[in-house]
Amino acid sequence: MTITASDLAGKTATYSDATFTVSDDSNGGLSSEDILGIVLIVLTVILLGGVITYFVISKKKLEKKYK
Question: Does pTM surpass 0.90?
Answer without folding.
Answer: no
